Amino acid sequence: MAPHVYVDQLKQHVGQPIVLKGWLYNMASKGKLHFLQVRDGSGIVQAVMSKAEVGDQIFALAGSLKQEASIIVHGTVREDARSPIGVEVGVQTLELIHQPTADFPISPKDHGTAFLMEQRHLWLRSRKQVAVLRVRAEIVRQIRNYFDSRGFVLMDAPMFTPSACEGTSNLFEVDYFGDKAYLTQSGQLYGEAGAMALGRIYTFGPTFRAEKSKTRRHLTEFWMVEPEVAFMDLDGDMELAEDLLVEVIKGVVANRKAELAVLERDLTKLEKVQKPFPRIRYEEAIEILHKKGKDTKFGDDFGADEETAISEEFDRPVMIHRYPAAIKAFYMKRDPQDPRVALAVDVIAPDGYGEIIGGAQREDDLATLEARIKEHNLPREAFEWYLDLRRYGSVPHAGFGLGLERTVQWICGLHHVRETIPFPRMMGKIEP
Ligand code: 4AD
Ligand code: MG
After folding, report:
1. 240, β-bridge pairs
2. Hey, which of 139, 168, 185, 186 would you mutate to test ligand 1's pocket, going by the most ligand atoms within 8 Å of its Cβ?
């Protein structure tokens, strides 16, 4: 019996009989030849069927196949210089597993995005979407591998929370047995408890924000990886963020060249992501904006336009640190040299992909943190457990959150974040 071989492994079977299991992506016919494009999730291969070899019946069966018919192809792998994967399959015979009951709604021609988003469950089968999902999975693998191989412990934070981590304006409220609870905006506060127990941890899970803006960077449900490290300061935090990004990009470029080629990603840009990343203070970022004719003032937050303008100055991610404390979260430590600013850092991706990382050194003094909770009008009771972390062996510590989808968007070079996650959730979008 010939072995079942996935498309991405066919090259190792040149000259051998194999079995291919997949779906009909597309087909062209010319006289007594059918050229079937067969996809199996690992890639797409051309299977060439000649009437003389398979006989009239199988040839007619192949001719009647609808797009996305599921099939099993028995054939032989042969080298083919014109093929993007270097091989094609000469068909000996074909089995039909399922003939679609209707015409597939997505043909290989162009469709509008609104239509494709409604058909997301089927759109996932197309070449570009498969490439994106494979790159996404590789990014996740590289991130986990990075932390797992450096002594970090994976720690899962809860999804239901009694309090806000990142401000109260975009919380999803849920009814928790008659009490108010919220879907988590960030695993960080729990990650801090974990860092005090385990030293170095990372959380990696979905996070939720009721973002009422429709931008190309905002989802309401997105995945975040959040390292948290005891005895680390802001400089250590920036080193960790930089090293993580360099290693992840290196691994993805090495392992997902074929997919990045499908996405027509310019690899020279990704290959420039090397240490050191520029590190500039918020106030230096403002100077850049002034030179570019913007009138941003100290105390203003940067939006997409400002981030793009700043990123244009650099060929790799830029780290902007020491933002005004007033525009940052309650838990961030102030700079002892300049109490107007927080020991915070944002990492802005090149080419206008925007903020991919937000992080900070945390306030570790009990009385100061108590005062911040009050200033931010946060309910003290809900944070008592968090304050305990400053009551029992408080240490300097820091961490950050890397948004997975924005990272996928940048690495894949996608205009909109909605294509970076299998089933995107956005304002006005919860189906399919
Ligand atoms: O800057 P943010 O809000 O930081 C935090 O949540 C911290 N508690 C993280 C930490 O220090 N442990 O979010 C971190 C990252 C952003 O840089 C961005 O990449 C992503 O999460 N992000 C979003 N991605 C998609 N859609 C949204 N609505 C996002 N909001 C934030
Ligand atoms: Mg942020």
Report:
1. none
2. 186
Query: In whole numbers, what is the pLDDT of the chain averaged over residues?
Result: 97
196-229 pLDDT, tens digit per residue, is 999 999 999 999 999 888 899 999 999 999 999 9
Q: Which atom of ligand 1 is nearest to the CA of 227?
A: 12
Q: How far is the CA of 344 from the centre of ligand 2 (A)?
A: 10
Dist. CA 355 → ligand 2 center (Å): 7
User: Which ligand 1 atom lies nearest to the CA of residue 220?
Assistant: 28
**How confident is residue 335, by pLDDT bands cut at 50, 70 and 90?**
very high
pLDDT band, very low/low/confident/very high, at 167 (cuts 50, 70, 90) = confident
- Tell me how far the alpha carbon of residue 209 lies from the centroid of ligand 1, in angstroms: 9
What are the chain's domains? 7-98 (2.40.50.140), 120-420 (3.30.930.10)
Q: What sign for the dihedral angle of Cα 193, 195, 197, 198?
A: positive
pTM of the model: 0.97
Residue owning tokens 């001719």:
63
Mean pLDDT across 125-130: 96
From the CA of 242, how far away is ligand 1's center (Å)?
17
Residue 159, phi then psi, degrees to nearest 5? -90, -35
Helix (H) or strand (E) holding 301: none
Distance CA 399, CA 233 (A): 9
Q: Within 10 A of 320 (CB to CB), how many other CB atoms are there? A: 24
| CA proximity to 186, closest of 168, 203, 162 | 203
Q: 401 Cβ partners below 8 Å, 6+ apart?
A: 186, 188, 224, 225, 226, 357, 358, 359
Closest-approaching ligand to the CA atom of 167: 1
Contact 387, 372 (CB under 8 A): no
Q: How far apart are CA 227 and CA 240, in angstroms?
A: 9
> Residue 152 has what pLDDT?
98
pLDDT at 66 over 90: yes
Cβ 279 vs Cβ 310: under 8 Å:
no
Please report where in the chains the tokens 């840009």 appear, as a residue: 269
Phi, psi of 189 (to 5 degrees): -60, -35
Return the SS3 of 82: coil
Site to substitute for ligand 1 among 201, 222, 319, most atoms within 8 A of C-beta: 222
